[in-house]
Amino acid sequence: MAPRRLRAKVSPSLVSFGRRFRRFREAKGWSQENVARRARDGEGVTPQYIGQVETGRTRCTREFAETMDRELETGGELVELWEDLVKGAEFPTWYEWLPVEETAEELTSWNLSLVHGLLQIPSYAEMLLYGDKEKVEERIARQSILTRKSPPPPGCTFLIDEGVLLREVGNPAIMRAQLDHLIEAPKALGVSLHIVQMRGDHLGNASSFTIATMEDMREVAYFESPARGFTLEEYEELAALRRALREIRGLALPVDQSLDVIRKVQAERWT
User: Fold this and answer.
1) Which residues in the chain land under pLDDT 50?
2) What is the pTM of this model?
């Protein structure tokens, strides 16, 4: 049975903007592919991104609205709609991260305590989800974005605290298998993986988080609390995460050295 997907909640104002945008596109007789090629001053976006805008599942930028206003010849109406419907729209919280993750150009993740969901093996995920098979299937299904053909997978960078390798989840056999997966991930999945040696004097010790860079270069961040996850896109909040990310990157080992650290921990602790 296919894994059940939680239905994403969307902002009604984003849905309204998307509908009007679609009507402008259809009035021109253009397909999503056609209008996608005209975005970003000719640099283009994917048709999937246009679909996300039209269904209200993502917030486009004012620059995107200005370009489309010009291309669709709406006489400033599309920009006015952006000001009225998109500018102040609440970006969704927990369930909306999935479409953000699915449509991101790049994902940069800092993992303080556990392996990121996109890199978890089923047995590791099962322990974290208390044996809930349906939730495990949903989590593993998310990983298909790393191996899909169209659109291309996002560029992924995983920064992992060394403590993640030492923290037992389940039993030593699960940890050995999970670390095997991490060792294989850069080559098998085309991701960048960096170990950050444990220390308590950097900003990343507050929380794990992921920053998604979208096709229009907008950034959306996600972090979890014990109650639920949150998405952020306010400038001040993102600026604080970027500062933390700079510190974390400065402490991160290159990929080759990181893989050596994983192998060493695996041999010394999980055999």
Assistant:
1) 1-8, 92-95
2) 0.71
